[in-house]
Design goal:
The structure is a single chain. The chain has five helices and five strands, in the order βααβαβαββα. α2 runs parallel beside α5 and α3 runs parallel beside α4. It starts with a strand and ends with a helix. It has a single domain, classed as Dehydroquinase, class II (Rossmann fold, 3-Layer(aba) Sandwich), CATH 3.40.50.9100. Helix content is about 35%, strand content about 20%. The chain is α/β, with parallel strands linked by helices. It binds 1,3,4-trihydroxy-5-OXO-cyclohexanecarboxylic acid. 1,3,4-trihydroxy-5-OXO-cyclohexanecarboxylic acid (DQA) binds next to loops.
Length: about 140
């Protein structure tokens, strides 16, 4: 079965209670369940992870680079400023699809910059939890 990593950055473990008007009421566990269900129905082995620690995420990107594993990636706040995450993502040869629950371009100006977008195959933003499912669907076609 084709493996896909779904990587999540800081504060996404607080979904459900974190700014629900912006991010919705689903928890990250709910989103993981939807991704797992989609994977089971479509022959994808979804490996879903979250960390608040930049170093841990960099380690996961190194692992994805070594194993040429595709990634659905919500880097959360690291999107906007982490050169280290970008540099690690640049080593990945399999496609990266960047996802966001919200649409950062509709929000504060500091969210308008993504250091990841230039490396991503594409970006899906603004569809809440469905951003992840749309990204997994797109991954099936790549
Ligand atoms: C986010 C958008 C980021 O700007 C923010 O820092 C997040 C979540 C999103 O999924 O909408 O933590 O990546």
């Amino acid at each position: 079965m084709r493996k896909v990593l779904v990587l999540n950055g800081p504060n996404l473990d607080k979904l459900g209670t974190r700014e629900p008007d912006v991010y919705g009421s689903l928890t990250l566990t709910d989103i993981q369940a939807k991704c797992t269900e989609f994977g089971e129905a479509n022959g994808l082995d979804v490996d879903f992870r979250q960390s608040n620690d930049e170093a841990v995420i960099i380690g996961w990107l190194h692992e994805a680079a070594e194993t040429a594993t595709p990634i659905v990636f919500n880097p959360a706040a690291f999107t906007h400023y982490s050169v280290a995450i970008r540099d690690a993502a640049a080593m990945c040869s399999a496609p990266i699809i960047e996802v966001h629950l919200s649409n950062p371009i509709k929000r504060e100006e500091f969210r308008h910059t993504s250091l990841i977008s230039g490396l991503a195959y594409g970006t899906i933003s603004g569809f809440g939890a469905n951003s992840y499912l749309l990204a997994l669907r797109a991954m099936l076609e790549l």
